[in-house]
Amino acid sequence: MGNFDGVHLGHRAVIDLARGVAPLGVITFEPHPREVFSPATSPFRLMNAEARANRLAKLGVAHLFELPFDAALAGLSPEDFARDVLARGLGVAQVVVGADFCFGKGRRGTAADLVALGQTHGFRVTVADLVTTGNRPISSTAIRAALSDGRPRDAAAMLGHWHRIEGEVIHGEKRGRELGYPTANMGVAGLHLPKLGVYAVLVDVLTGPQKGSYLGAASLGVRPMFGENQPNLETFLFDFKGDLYGQHLSVALVDYLRPELKFDGLPALITQMEADCAKAREILSTLVG
Questions:
Q1: Rounded to whole angstroms, how far apart are CA atoms 222 and 227?
Q2: Is 274 a catalytic residue?
Q3: pTM score > 0.85 for this model?
Q4: Most buried of 31, 40, 47, 209 (most Cβ within 10 A)?
Q5: What residue numbers bound the domain in which 263 lies?
């Protein structure tokens, strides 16, 4: 049980402790509690709900319970949450949480409190130790910092997998097609933005007739060449032909190539795009070759 934003190695340790005890399930909250308590804060999520569900499924999670986090749930005392939601509502036999887990109104309940409440209401509780790297706990905060600095490999070392942006391919301005580099455009609203710029990426097409894995280069940003300022992700899939509108993609950020630039004209932009794709192919060939 937890928020599991990013599903990093610390979350993986919690999940692994639950394996083999019973059918493996995850209890999480949607939207993220921070979005409810501090709606005006900058987007911070590493994953949307779709990406989190996909990652948990890859880890063998058979059942995913996304509890709707609202004022009613947030107002439950630790005792009420343990009794009404976990024991009576879900009928859990055993719950595994991280050592820093907090719950109940005002986050008053601790992992130790949950252990005691479990004894009262008939379920066992296991508390997982925090996972560290370099004597520091792995956290979503540290992962966000690495992504903000343009260090996706450092983020991946803490995540245990590539950081991915997932979602539906939407219609854009179709400028890439005119330039000879048609891109799959995806929104990034509500997500923590990694450093803006161009990345070497691995792409999984999750739905549709072109399902499969591809290499590519992606631009994350506001397209300063064209005077626009709404961030999105534009991904060019190498050696791909087809229509991806409405399909769902998972784009893994592997290496940061360069920041966003404003060019003097389209020829200079195309020349740079050619160089970006060549560099991305070189990097990615070492991963799949």
A1: 8
A2: no
A3: yes
A4: 47
A5: 163-288
